[in-house]
User: Fold this.
Amino acid sequence: MSNVEYLDVFIDESQEHLQLINNSLLELENQPNNLSLVSEVFRSAHTLKGMAATMGYEDLSHLTHTMENVLDAIRNEQLEPDDKVMDAVFGSVDDLEAMIEDIASGGDGKRDIEQAVQQLELALNGEVPEVPNQTANATSETEAMLEVGTVLDEGFDQFEMTVLTQSQEQGFTVYQLKIELDENTMLKAARVFMVFEILENMGEVIKSTPPVDQLEEENFDNEFVVTLLTKEPGTELEQSIRNVSEIDNVQMIEINVNELKAGLGQQESAATETAVLEKSVPTKKQPASSPDQKVEDSGSSDQQPKKSDINKTIRVNIERLDVLMNLFEELVIDRGRLEQISSELNNSELNETVERMSRISGDLQEIILNMRMMPVEQVFNRFPRMVRSLSKDLGKQINLTIHGAETELDRTIIDEIGDPLVHLLRNSIDHGIEKPEVRRNLGKSEEGQVELRAYHSGNNVFIEIEDDGAGINKDKVIQKALTNGVVTEEEIEKMSDQQIFSLLFASGFSTAEEVTDVSGRGVGLDVVRSTFESLGGIVEVDSELGKGSIFSIQLPLTLSIIDVMLVEVQTEKYAIPLSSIVETAIVNKEDVYSAHNQKVIDFRGKVVPLIFLQDTFDVQEAGQHDEYYSLVLVNKGEKMAGLVVDSLIGQHDIVLKSLGSYLTNVFAISGATILGDGQVALIVDTNALIK
Amino acid sequence: MEVTETTASQDLKVIVFQLKDEEYAIEVDYVQSIERMQTVTRIPKVSPYIIGVMNLRGIITPVIDLRKRFGIEEKKYDETTRILVLSKDNIELGLIVDSANDVIDIPAEKIEPTPEVVGSVEEEYLRGVIKLDRRLFTLLNLDKVLHDKQS
Assistant:
């Protein structure tokens, strides 16, 4: 294919359009009378079709085309968007998604679309009788309105005439445009597509010669004629089209439908030839044949405000951002080194410069990290569709509400959390929400509520999934945990409710009595937990029997640069993430007690066990001992522990690096970092130390 | 193996290094660099032959002591000690050897299967022996070394 270089753009944009279609369709289900939603879907579908045709993906463009017909019928209120119709449309969107995915993974985007097309056509024809005869013919031919007329440039069949008359009555002006492309245009179809996009933004194209599909296949010389309904002034229209490059000439005339009707079609065609040079002939002379100018949107006026609120953005490949990040990480390491040198030299000018540099690089760091941030919407926006089809499959009624979709997270985290969140959502819907009849008997509303929330708090992002379903049966969990040998009875006795619920995340756990297709496929919640934990996250669950459950996930904002406390253990240096530190303290040795062979301290009235890093990490004795202990108090959820070190060096921003793939599962070490002096310091995974 | 070597595609370019009094060979394609001994940060609770990680131009690289790995008596690191940095399948690994100094071409027919007993080195880490003139090299099984699962 010659347009490989456009492929990435094509895939990106197609996915965006599909998402838009999905969202609007879902909204449409809730408010079936909101025709502006249909227009939105229609526009996206149309753009998608144009792009697909340009790129040569026939199946894709064919299916979109058929879908467009259905949408068009809905838009023109010839078709009621009922369940059957929506299912057909959703079905074809699934097919479209599959095709785009295939293309994205290097396939040819071919797919058997017979069934989807058939369903769409059935949906379309199912309602046809209600529609006036001519329109029915026009739409049921799987030909868009635009392609109906096969007469010459200026000829309009009766149906088109009706459309023209009606729109003129509604205050639209009819223009006929003849657009000439440069002889040397390489991608004619692309230009045509651009022109059509402009036209459709400003009004509605009701006819083109040659027909659109032929234009898209580049079956034309260098010029084509379109008929447009618009409320925009002609000058602006012409200017916008001229802005498209490789357009040689635009000729436009206004058409008076009444004259046309009067059988002056012939004269009209002559006018096309003569009046062409003067674009400004009768620009604003609106044939206001109907005094009551009903401002009824047919998708043109509601588009205008949209344009202005589009942010100015550019697309940047994520790889480039990664490279930028890597370079910046190098800089952070050198910054550390400079800081160290300057503190050794103690030269005031040098100190000042280094301080300034540190500040600037701090700002830079914030910007770079921000650039990698994406709204969780990226992940959340596929959930409504999933919940919709899931609730249909399971025969449950579910209302999913999403809050805080705009909350931002690092791209690397966004990429990872999709699947585990799907798992949790499915879990809530499958095991949590009861069937409608059960809910009714319980006095709940038949429709189950599932709420998905995301919000910021400190250096973390929280994601919560709450349902008002059956809740978790504690006894069942205990029983299951005991039979599976996850815990012993003694352990259970000491556990709080929340700890018991957390057993759900233990390996090999599934409380579903009947294994459905949805969840309980052997992949347990333990996988969910380990995925989140590998991202530095924590999963918790709380539940009230009969009232519902809530799963909450705590995630770090970003992964690569973290704040740590550097400590020394004999001669070795370790980094402890600030996020897990409660505080640091120095205690006298005599304040340490022994309980069950475990050294503990009394810290603010709480008994906190001590962990001697020198012993835990088998650090060689180097003869450094004081009469007091330096402590770093860390926590994991509710639990606390004091890490005993020899000295506290201080707080640093460090770049988290992996230990490489050769080393896997190193005990209590989550990674490494390069210090200012070029040495490697290991990062302590405090969660592994607290039992 | 290089495409340009199609005529002699059976040939192998190797780096020769020394451990105690034996010479070993390793394919040059996977050797990213040869470094002098440098500071290595110890990692707690791993196999004793993994001596730690080093900072190799910004990349954290694990380092293993090949003498320890093969159960050869230990020797103090000195001026001739080298770290061979291997890189394959996204795995980076530094091997500490007594010295490394030669790059030679070996015709394929010179590679012979490993004899039953070759010193004390575990057989699975070897891919064959090479006899060239009067020298005898043992060819290291790179995949085995890199994918060595620590206990």
